[in-house]
Design a protein that fits this description.
The structure is a single chain. By secondary structure, the protein is an alpha/beta fold. The chain contains 12 helices and 12 strands. The strands form 2 sheets. Strands 5-2-1-6-7-8-11-12 form an 8-stranded mixed β-sheet, with helices on both faces. Strands 4-3-10-9 form a 4-stranded mixed β-sheet. The mean pLDDT is 96. The structure holds ketopantoate. The site of ketopantoate (KPL) has 12 residues, from helix 6.
Length: 309
């Protein structure tokens, strides 16, 4: 059955399920787009099981693998892995009609560029979220940290950015207009470049990385290196970024980073789009990012080892 939605969440992973449940629960017309029809049917039948603040509830959410069923959607909220971006945008197009927008809150650098290779810039928003979530099974998610969203329109379409902020706030998610999308994307990339591979390689939840002296020194060094490349690439990176990343480790202390979750589940990680992309951006400027290069090689080694098992 075809029925228009305000927000179409794309990707039923941890972040997609969390946001689809929060939006749907608040009465915003919400859909969830999955590429897997059998899983979509399962989620539609049972709803999303949301664990939040020690309570568990089932939230009915319409889920389908057919994007046209949600047309016309005002906004597609992209929560697929960075390596699936282009395919997911193509899959979403039938829901968007001529005017629907896309907001990416994905991890990694370069997602905005990948999306605007397909959809006109005026319809694309980008930003970051501090939300943490753990996928416990199909359509079953546990919130692992409240989200604060910074988003903006690199093309200057503030009407569309404000509309997206309105939807998120309507779902009780704190959201603000970013002064500079480049700055917020780099800030998040620096956080992810340090926390994600270190937690994935050690198997430790985020909080432990700031507790042990040796790991904290490594964490700080990766932050410094990534921040330097960010600055050389034109982003404003705050002076206190090292302390800020340690604070994020503590605030999301129990959370297993998304890269640790991916590696543990035998999924491909986003290392190429985080540390790998920082290395490429450094090299494009004649610079080096040896720690990011080493972490990229190690995580890719772990990915390869999983295929041998
Ligand atoms: O974004 C995250 C992730 O896991 O990908 C952090 C902020 C590190 C929270 O776990």
């Amino acid at each position: 059955m075809s029925e228009a939605v305000d927000v179409l969440v794309v990707g039923p992973g941890a972040m997609g399920c969390l946001h689809a449940a929060l939006l749907a629960e608040s009465g915003i017309r919400t859909g969830l787009l999955d590429h897997d029809a059998a899983r979509a049917q399962h989620i539609s039948e049972r709803g999303i099981t949301l664990e939040r603040a020690g309570q568990e509830r089932a939230v009915p959410v319409r889920c389908s693998a057919d994007a046209a069923e949600f047309a016309p959607a005002r906004l597609a909220l992209l929560f697929v892995k960075a390596y699936d971006t282009e395919e997911a945008v193509q899959h979403t197009l039938p829901a968007l009609g001529d005017d629907g927008g896309i907001l990416t809150l994905q991890n990694g650098l370069g997602n905005y560029e990948r999306i605007t290779g397909i959809v006109p810039e005026v319809r694309v928003l980008a930003g970051t979220t501090t939300a943490g979530a753990t996928l416990l099974g199909e359509g079953h998610v546990r919130e692992a940290g409240r989200g604060f969203v910074h988003l903006g329109s690199p093309s200057g379409n503030f009407r569309r950015a404000r509309e997206a902020i309105g939807f998120l706030r309507g779902a009780g998610i704190e959201a603000e207009l970013a002064q500079s999308v480049t700055d917020v994307l780099w800030a998040k990339a620096i956080v992810n470049a340090a926390i994600n591979p270190l937690s994935a390689l050690t198997g430790l939840p985020n909080g432990r990385l700031a507790e042990s002296e040796g790991l904290r020194a490594l964490l700080d060094a990766v932050v410094e290196e990534a921040a330097n490349i960010g600055r050389m690439s034109g982003a404003f990176v705050q002076e206190g970024i090292v302390n800020a990343v340690q604070a994020i480790c503590r605030e999301t202390g129990e959370n297993r980073s998304s890269m640790l979750q991916d590696l543990s589940a035998g999924r491909r990680t986003e290392i190429d789009f985080i540390n790998g992309e920082i290395v490429r951006r450094a090299e494009a400027r004649g610079l080096k990012a040896p720690l990011c290069a080493m972490l990229t090689a190690l995580v890719k080694g772990r990915e390869e080892a999983a295929t041998l098992a």
